[in-house]
Amino acid sequence: MMDDKRLTRRSFLKGSMVIGGAVVLSSQIPTLTKALASASRAVLADLPRRETLYLSGMQWGPIAGWNPYSSNNNNAITVNQAANAIVTVFETPYVFNLLTGEQMPLLADGAYTWNAEQTEITFQIKAAAKWRDGTSVTAEDVAYTWATNLQYGTDVGGRYAEYIEDITAVDTHTVLVKAKLDEENQAINPLQVAAYLSDNYVIQKAWTQTLEARSGGDADAFKNDAALDFVSSGPYTSYFDNDEILILVRDDEYWGQDASMWGKLPMPKYLAHVIYADDETTLAAFKAGQVDVSPLFISNVQDLWLVDKLPIATYMPDAPYGICASLPSAFYNTNSYGLDNATIRKAIAMAVDYNAIIANSMANQSPTFTQVPRSVMNPMPYEQALYDQEAVKDLQWAGGDIDGAKALLDAAGIVDTDSDGYREYNGQKLTYNAVCPNGWVDWMGAAAEIALAGQAIGIDIQDSYPEWADYMNVFTDGTQTEYDIFMAWTSGAGPANPWGRVRWLMSSEWHGMQGNWNGNWGGYVNPAIDDIIKAIPNETDPVALKQLYTDATQIYLTDVPSFAVMYRPEQFYTVNETVWTNYPKEGDGTDIPPLVLIFGYGIAALYRLTLQPLEMFIPMVQKN
User: Fold this and answer.
1) What average pLDDT is seen over the chain?
2) The predicted structure's pLDDT at residue 617
3) Residue 524 lies in a domain
4) Is 80 exceeded by the pLDDT of residue 153?
5) How many helices (H) and strands (E) does the chain have?
6) Residue 348 C-alpha from the chain's centroid
7) Based on the domain organization, do 426 and 532 belong to the same domain?
8) Of 139, 245, 351, 543, most Cβ neighbours within 10 A?
9) Do 348 and 457 share a domain, yes or no?
10) Model's pTM, two decimal places?
């Protein structure tokens, strides 16, 4: 066997943090070069600490705008339209709850309803819902928002134009959403139609028309407008921002204090995000109680309360500490020699030591594949209930099965015929690379373990770590031959999942595509899974739906076009209770998800926060 120091198992998390969802080495993060400017310090000094919730780890650099039609605001606590949309300033009809899989009414009054053919959705807008200028939120606002997204080619319009035919106002408060139909007069995808309602904002028609007039009908000007005069419906609005701070202030006239919604205002008057220079500085501020809620990955997070005795907590008191909803995965390039063979793919996947990845790359902040057996599902109970676990039990593997992987290869005649220590397939030595971006330390740990597994079963796999700028151009090219086994992400929790994840992992619709950011990067093609992907969205019989998901799981675990290397939280979630307490915790009976209190139904936490008693708060501040 080849002696390569790169194959030595390493503890990849020492001195590392997370930026943009991936762990990065501290040595790659610039150090803080200056203190806050006097203007920023003055603003912070004016914020009452016991009225301000400090967030961190999301805003890197000054904001570009407040435009809800734009995808280039860099406004991390205000504008984000996705499965767990940020609803601090702009609001959606519904909000997604990743704990339960439900879409909870926000601007909407009650649940939405499908017609008998499942081609149209109807829902009501709450009579109490108001814009900040005091006018009512109406069905016409909903309809005009959709028409505008189409007209100006926004990202939202681009994502949903394939699925939604039209959105109209039936009357002042009644909205009708018509799905696009296929040749059989079925909705092309009811799941995506429903997802629109919790993923995307309702924007005021009158303000939109002001923006249109200002941009003269030019789409780029429309989307690039900073929208400083925005009109919104949410509980917060802009207060102050520069290149060091972003602050929102509560609207004390917010309509949501009506009994038909929250019945009160959110507890913090201000939401503030200091733009720290790096993750190390952010972590120091968090430990000192200057940050209340952190989405940063913190290795050995339990030491903060067990060793350092800090008033810091996670959603769960013990590992994995949070709720995992996504499945970072290693994709096989089926264009690489031998990787078009499912036996070789499965053998490598069986041999990988996932427990080592979880321990070294995730500091055990992930359930193991023994605790949550692998499938196309994330660990959430409502997803796990969607497939027959007993039916696929014999196909699942927990990892580290060197003997089983060797036996699988031996039985297929894939053996070492020239005694060099490596197996051949049809006379050719099996040699591959396992690739991920340099500095993405959790993924690097996975790539190293894949390489170790290959060496252990007689397949020459070497780990490789190109820079992200190079990596992204290669793995998104459907014709590339440079990477054999490479890391990528999968979708987490959302109203269109797990269907969306099955599509992401196996759909052939992106086969051979260049610039593919959609999924199935290895080029796997199977007409049977394409039929399942097409059938799932329109299946309303729970028994038949469970069979479809079971079939999808069987195909995935048999053909192994990719394999999850860990379960990962939708967001890392750690709180400092120096000032505020009563954060969402496992078993508290609220079903409020462990998000950063501004995403999806996570915003419900802002309405139940309580302040630490003053006699406790003062000694903590003095200590810090």
Assistant:
1) 92
2) 56
3) yes
4) yes
5) 18, 26
6) 27
7) yes
8) 351
9) yes
10) 0.91
